[in-house]
Amino acid sequence: MSAEVVSLSPKGHGDSPSLDPILSLTAQSMNAVNAVILERMESEIPLIPALAGHLISGGGKRMRPMLTLAGAELVGYQGDHHHKLAAAVEFLHTATLLHDDVVDGSETRRGKEAANIIYGNPATVLVGDFLFSRAFELMVDSGSLRALKVLSDASVIIAQGEVDQLTAQRKIETSEERYLNIIGAKTAALFAAASRISAVIAGCDAEQEKALDDYGRNLGIAFQLVDDAIDYDSERAEMGKDQGDDFREGKMTLPVILAYARGDADERRFWQDAIAGFSNNDDDLVHAVKLIGKHNTVEATRERARHFAERACDSLSIFPDSSARRAMVEAARFAVARFY
Amino acid sequence: MSAEVVSLSPKGHGDSPSLDPILSLTAQSMNAVNAVILERMESEIPLIPALAGHLISGGGKRMRPMLTLAGAELVGYQGDHHHKLAAAVEFLHTATLLHDDVVDGSETRRGKEAANIIYGNPATVLVGDFLFSRAFELMVDSGSLRALKVLSDASVIIAQGEVDQLTAQRKIETSEERYLNIIGAKTAALFAAASRISAVIAGCDAEQEKALDDYGRNLGIAFQLVDDAIDYDSERAEMGKDQGDDFREGKMTLPVILAYARGDADERRFWQDAIAGFSNNDDDLVHAVKLIGKHNTVEATRERARHFAERACDSLSIFPDSSARRAMVEAARFAVARFY
């Protein structure tokens, strides 16, 4: 079983921000994390590594554990507890993805058939629970009760965000503020915790812990905003990538929230029917992308994302200049420049 | 919101073992545990307490947290960390029940409509995740890294047991040994951990920890054996209780494993078809109960349960006689005498 990591590269070249510096910064410790991941997804029940491995070895970006590793470099952490904690972070994320795919009835994930389609919902729910449990086992092994507190609190917030998102689904009246609360919980809480725990295990002061938390949280919001923009981006369609999952599921993401707010009466009726699930076929998706283009809300969403990415960068300014800090700043700028 | 606890009483009276002593022993601390449970199932997302409360306030027996509380009495623990830990144990159990109901497509639970029927699978999966996360948050709050280790290890074993059970479903060739492994993981691991952590937080020696682990583990196996016997018990049918869930789901429980082993060629063909899901309607269930009665395998299963209950009782013999020990011994004997 391998655990190949797919690196992202931005669409353009030249001056575009790149993930390469953060990938180099964390390459060696990421190998150690991948070894922990592969070891701990094993089980004497063969279905577990088969199903977990389908997702874990299937090209994750390892964004979240990378934050723990980069943070450890930034603060000069000398131990090795961050390997297990970073693996725990990835397991928490993977468990959430498996359950998300069951909840959404997803058909694909990371360009492959989703686990729930291959193995069914029951196995996917239970293997998600296994990974969740393994995550906490790894945290306990790392021995830091304070890191455990940060991650278990985040885990509660993530679950609340997932339920909140479900509650907001097919609700056209969802506001930008509620949307930001949802992505702050379901996505950014884990980014924040992943980043913060590097300072926790290194014994940093409260200001540094907070700075790393802010970095992760703002980056997480930016990351999710871009994900949500991409799902309606006409450039993505040109690249032959699937899109429209959020549209079909009636998820109120920012491109839709803004297009609805900026739309005329006819457009608003269209969005009401579409989000309610009455008109969300492929032709409707084409119309939705057209309206979103008309009101420029993919670009508006990306603009919001850039705002949060810059806040992420600024939160690192309390740390002295270093290759780690430069890599983390560039990673944040990359996150909002990416197209897939 | 209340959190009423349904106490069990055995069918007979007089000399029958009773849960009353253990209920009295733990009544005061159980009130504290219930307060923690009610407080921690709250959330600003209204769907969470609604769904969680449907199950939690719906008449659980609180068997598992009761083990933690009784163990604390047995070893003379003086602190109050056991309240949060016992609540965490109940949350872990409740999360598992919610996910089980999704996995099995259950229609009822504890005599009421199951949460997945009322709220749907997506919400039920996600609220299960919330309770799971809350459980770990409570463990962290309790401050014992060793108790966290015991419970997170148990949580991994439970998840593996659940997946193993799924793998064995509809497999007529499942052996008694494999069945015991499955229930040892999916049920007894949490009973063992719930019991052991009382010794852990009280700072008991390894022998006492092991004794309380053994008590919980053997009691858990006995408890599950009786549950599985009851699902085919003709006396239960006379009481007007639903039965046959295991039969319809093709679960290989001990009454079936033994009836298949003891059956003639015709009977074996019936079981093969029934467990495979080809003949499992109500008439087939009547026939199954008849065959199980013919080979006395409900009674054989109960006999196995008595064996494990006696082992549970014996494991407590290293502790001096006390009202706590007597209550725990009687609870184990009650567990195998109950009819629902």
UniProtKB/TrEMBL annotation, chains A, B:
SUPFAM superfamilies: Terpenoid synthases (SSF48576)
Cofactor(s) the record lists: Mg(2+)
EC number(s) stated in the UniProt entry for this protein: 2.5.1.90
InterPro entries: Isoprenoid_synthase_dom_sf, Polyprenyl_synt, Polyprenyl_synt_CS
GO molecular function per UniProt: all-trans-octaprenyl-diphosphate synthase activity; metal ion binding
PANTHER family in the cross-refs: ALL TRANS-POLYPRENYL-DIPHOSPHATE SYNTHASE PDSS1, GERANYLGERANYL PYROPHOSPHATE SYNTHASE
Protein name: Octaprenyl diphosphate synthase
Species per Swiss-Prot/TrEMBL record: Altericroceibacterium endophyticum
